[in-house]
Amino acid sequence: MTVKLSAGDKAPAFKLPGAGAAAVSLASLKGKTVVVYFYPKDDTTGCTREAIDFTGLKADFEAAGAVVIGVSPDSVESHAKFAAKHELDVMLLSDESKEMLEAYGVWAEKSMYGRKYMGVERTTFLIDGKGRIARVWNKVKVPGHAAEVLEAARAL
User: Could you tell me if 129 and 15 are in contact, meaning their C-beta atoms sit under 8 angstroms apart?
Assistant: First the structure.
């Protein structure tokens, strides 16, 4: 049973390890606007582009009072290499247990070349300072996405 979260829902709590940082929890970000973008895999074309786009707008997100967090099932070590290779400056959290991915309903059955498998559905959540979901982007197309999320964050 896949969870389907919508605007207005309370964002599921999380606490995950990050690359080069202590564990990050939703509770520790209370009062801030939080952008959580879920992506399938470090160092793949779309995921790299998305991370670079969010990094490029980091100062703008901070000016809007927003924190940007990328989450994938890759390890902390993988995230650290990915961040170093592409000079990424957004928090990357590791969800190897897939608990957060499942809580947010983004660990889903996917299909490629007729083969079904479980994977991350590229999805972004905008969470307000009270811990409520303000907006959800499902099946994200990367080009222009970070800028669109920034506009929504500014409007909060």
Answer: no
**What is the tens place of the pLDDT at every residue in 42-84?**
999 999 999 999 999 999 999 999 999 999 999 999 999 999 9
CA 69 to chain centre: 5
Which is it for the CA torsion 94, 38, 23, 96, positive or negative?
negative
Domains of the chain: 15-155 (3.40.30.10)
C-alpha–C-alpha distance, residues 153 and 83, integer Å: 24
Burial group, residue 66, by CB count within 10 angstroms (0-12, 13-18, 19+): buried
How does pLDDT run across 25-40, given as a tens digit for each residue? 999 999 999 999 999 9
Q: Is the pLDDT of residue 1 over 80?
A: no
Which residues, in sequence order, are bridge partners of residue 66?
A: 33
- Which residues 6+ apart lie within 8 Å of 86 measured at CB? 43, 48, 51, 52, 55
Active site positions, annotated: 47
Cα–Cα separations (whole angstroms), residue 68 to 1, 108, 114, 115 = 28, 23, 34, 33
